[in-house]
Specification:
The chain is α/β, with parallel strands linked by helices and 297 residues long. Helix content is 37%, strand content 12%. It has 7 helices and 8 strands. The chain is globular. The structure holds nicotinamide-adenine-dinucleotide.
Length: 297
C-alpha cells in the first residue's frame, strides 16, 4: 500500500531533473503518472524506469507552452487512467539576462512556459476535477528567485506570478475540495548548470539530489495532505519550509491621511530603520544614504 494508491497524476516537464524525481516518488507510492516533457525520449525513459520498478506510467510529449498542449495533456490522463486527481506544474526554462539587456523574446518565452503553462494546465485539470466532483490537488512550482534575483527579471517575475496564482486559486477552489500549493525546490539539474554570476562565470554549487523534492509533493497529492492549501513549501535537499505569506509590514497611520509634507517629515524617521533586505540573498538594507548614479570620471 502506498499513500497515493490509484491516484492519477500529471507531472509537467518531468523527463529529467526535479519532475522526474516527482514521477518516481509518486509511482513508488502507488500513483499512475503521466510523465510529460517536450523532450519525448526523456519522458519515455522515465516511463520505462517506472515500469521496470513495477509502477504505472505513460509518456506525453505535449508542449505546455500552449493551451492546446495543456488541454490535450489533461485529456490524456483521463483517457488513460479514467480520471485526474492531481496536476504538478513543474516544466520550466531559464533565459537569464540582465534587465537592461533582456529582450521581449527572453521575457515572453519564460512567461509563456512558466506562467501561462501553469495557468492552462491547472485550469484544464481543475475544470475536470470540478466535473468529477472528486476534489484534487494542484501543485505549482515557484522559486526563491521570486524574491528578486540578479539576471532573472523574466524568471523571477514568472515565479512571483505563480506564487500569487497559487494563493488566488486556493481561495477560489477550496469550495470544490481542490487544494492548491506550490513548492520552491532545490536541486542540481540542467537548469542550475546554467546559473551564472555577475561576471558571467558559471556558478559551481555542491550536488543536490533532485529526487529529494518528491516526498513533499507525494504528501500534497495524498488524501492525508488534504489539510494543506494556499502554501508555498520550500523543499530539498534536507529542508521542509513554510514560506511566509506576503503581508503588509511596519505601518504608520495618520489621522486624515498623508500629505507630501508629512511623508517628507515622517517616512524616513518612522520607517527608515524598518526597510527590509530585498532579493534572494537578503543582504542588509544598504541604501539609506541614497541610491545615486555613479560618479562622473
Ligand atoms: N533546480 C532548482 O534548484 C530549482 C529551484 C527553484 C525552482 N526550480 C523549478 O523546478 C522546475 C524543474 O526544474 P529543473 O531544475 O528540474 O529543470 P530541468 O531543466 O532539469 O527540467 C525542466 C524540464 O521541463 C521540460 N520542459 C521545458 N519546456 C517545456 C514545455 N514547454 N512543455 C513540456 N516540458 C517542458 C524540459 O524539457 C525539462 O526536461 C522548474 O519549474 C524550475 O523553475 C528549480
Amino acid at each position: 500500500m502506498g499513500i497515493v494508491d490509484a491516484k492519477a497524476v500529471v507531472v509537467t516537464g518531468s523527463g529529467r531533473g526535479i519532475g522526474r524525481g516527482h514521477c518516481l516518488g509518486l509511482a513508488a507510492e502507488g500513483a499512475a503518472v503521466i510523465v510529460n516533457d517536450v523532450d519525448a525520449e526523456e519522458a519515455e525513459s522515465v516511463v520505462k524506469e517506472i515500469a521496470a520498478a513495477g509502477g504505472v506510467a505513460s509518456a506525453s510529449a505535449h508542449d505546455v507552452g500552449s493551451r492546446e498542449g495543456c488541454e490535450a495533456l489533461i485529456e490524456q490522463c483521463i483517457s488513460e487512467f479514467g480520471k485526474i486527481d492531481a496536476v504538478v506544474n513543474n516544466a520550466g526554462i531559464v533565459r537569464d539576462k540582465t534587465f537592461l539587456k533582456m529582450s521581449d523574446e527572453d521575457f515572453d518565452d519564460v512567461y509563456r512556459i512558466h506562467v501561462k503553462g501553469t495557468f492552462w494546465c491547472a485550469q484544464a485539470g481543475a475544470r475536470k476535477m470540478v466535473e468529477q466532483g472528486t476534489g484534487g490537488s494542484i501543485i505549482n512550482t515557484t522559486s526563491g528567485a521570486h524574491m528578486g534575483n540578479f539576471g532573472q527579471t523574466n524568471y523571477a517575475g514568472a515565479k512571483g506570478a505563480i506564487a500569487s496564482m497559487t494563493y488566488t486559486w486556493a481561495v477560489e477552489l477550496a469550495r470544490y475540495g481542490i487544494r492548491v500549493n506550490a513548492i520552491a525546490p532545490q536541486a542540481s539539474t540542467r537548469m542550475t548548470g546554467q546559473l551564472k554570476d555577475r561576471d558571467g562565470n558559471v556558478i559551481e554549487v555542491p550536488f543536490i539530489d533532485p529526487n529529494l523534492n518528491a516526498p513533499a509533493v507525494v504528501y500534497l497529492v495524498s488524501d492525508e495532505g488534504n489539510w494543506v492549501t494556499g502554501q508555498v513549501i520550500g523543499t530539498g535537499p534536507d529542508r521542509l519550509v513554510v514560506m511566509n505569506q506576503p503581508s503588509y509590514g511596519p505601518t504608520v497611520l495618520r489621522e486624515d491621511g498623508w500629505t507630501v509634507d508629512a511623508v517628507r517629515r515622517y517616512f524616513k524617521t518612522s520607517l527608515g530603520g524598518q526597510l527590509q533586505p530585498f532579493g534572494l540573498r537578503k543582504v542588509p538594507y544598504a541604501h539609506l544614504s541614497g541610491v545615486l548614479p555613479p560618479e562622473k570620471k
